[in-house]
């Protein structure tokens, strides 16, 4: 179900002025956020480098009058000497994890980009809570992409195999691949990639779907 819908989708959005959900593909996708599932900012929680002593910050807000959301914030790299990340994380509402095994990957559709490098992360487990209330780090399956410096949005179809395992920012080459039957959380992140970027960031997202 992946190859053909993806091609059609890119042709369809290529012709349009901006990405749209109004495509004849609703049967081949499962909306997670946006599209058929209105954005609800309360479902998103900031997971910024402040949990490690940094001072980056992020926000996710639903944009009134549209069905898109703004992921924005400020990436600070000075506090942690070059490192830094800001992210927003969401979990499923009606079960502990999403079973997306019927799908080939995740489609991320944006409306407006700012040229920064972003990552979409999937987690199989949420880390256990430590006595001090912090959540232990777990393996994150990450897909990084350079957004469009000219500002236009894009539709990206990301297959499961395109996600690579990281633990606390370091690659874990021998980790097992992501299990699409058990996705406990999804996050959108802006990170410094070792001080290659910092400062304000802003990504307008139309939808996240399994495709
Ligand atoms: C938005 O999400 C919050 C937190 O999960 C939930 O309590 C609330 O009912 C949701 N609102 C809507 C309109 O779905």
From TrEMBL:
InterPro entries: Galactose-bd-like_sf, NADH-UbQ_OxRdtase-assoc_prot30, NDUFAF1. Residues 41-205 form the NADH:ubiquinone oxidoreductase intermediate-associated protein domain. One of its GO terms (molecular function) is unfolded protein binding. Keywords: Signal. One of its GO terms (biological process) is NADH dehydrogenase complex assembly. Residues 1-17 form the signal peptide. It comes from the Eukaryota. Belongs to the CIA30 family. This is Complex I intermediate-associated protein 30-domain-containing protein. It comes from Blyttiomyces helicus.
